[in-house]
Amino acid sequence: MDAILQVENLTKQYAGFQLDHVSFSVPKGTIMGLIGENGAGKSTTINAILDLIHKDGGTVAFWGQELSSSKQLKEDIGVVFDDINFYAALTPAQIGKISAAAYQQWDEVMYQDFLKRFQLPAGKEIKTFSKGMKMKLCIAAALSHKPKLLILDEATSGLDPVMRDDILDIFLEFVQDENHSILMSSHITTDLEKVADYITFIHQGKVLFCKTKDELRYQYGIIRCGAALFGQIDRTEILTYRKDDYQWNVLVADKEKAARKYKNAVVDDATIDDIMLLYVKGEQLN
To answer: Domain range for residue 87?
Structure first.
């Protein structure tokens, strides 16, 4: 599939932290989930992709073009951060007028529909809104200039479970025509399990993997065993492992093969949370 967003060898150096040759692509018509612990480099990656910070190396292309090469690209990219970027004294109605002047593709009818759908009062100042209301406003504004790519940095983190579910349905609707895509950073991995097609995992500034969600959810597994059986496991099959009291937890890429091979072990399904925690807190064999 054609890539809407292509990131290659993206690097950024800070004191004590380096974004280290990050590469991944977002195919057309898909949702890419970006995961990793706090400080792993997710927000740095998104800021570098959007030219909000200077890149030390690497390339970022939207539909094969650099962001600075075309004004149209900024129309075609909708962005929602984990904090609101509008002045607190503005009202949603005023934001609609400002956005209509800023975006040629602005759809005021769509915007008003979102305000009603999200139960956001058009005439009240943003500073009176809860965090969840502010996030809904940002999502409404981002969608109403009709982007082809949404970039979301923890955009659902301030929402209650019911509203999060409604927003995720909107994201799924957004990519239904297979011409739109979403890059979605989130620490709520259950959200990504519902909507993502691919998962890119960043740890300590490096991409550990970029895989389909289905491969992670339906093929990866965790062997639960004692020390004796742990010693018998083929070392080439161990992705990462962690010892908890008297039990070893071993992440493998093929749970069915593991269940056939190690009949005395319990082999559990692995959630995205499980996979992330084992990589972050576990150990890898050299």
So the answer is: 3-213
224-280 pLDDT, tens digit each:
999 889 989 999 999 999 998 889 999 999 999 999 999 888 999 999 999 999 999
Residue 272 CA to residue 270 CA, distance in Å, equals: 7
Whole-angstrom distance, CA of residue 198 vs CA of residue 5:
13
Residue 184 burial class via C-beta count within 10 angstroms: exposed 0-12, middle 13-18, buried 19 and up? buried
Please tell me whether residues 55 and 20 are part of one structural domain.
yes
Measured distance CA(126)–CA(221) in Å, rounded: 45
The CA distance from 147 to 162, in Å, is 25
Do residues 209 and 148 both lie within one domain? yes
pLDDT score recorded for residue 159: 83
Percentage of the chain beyond pLDDT 90 is 74
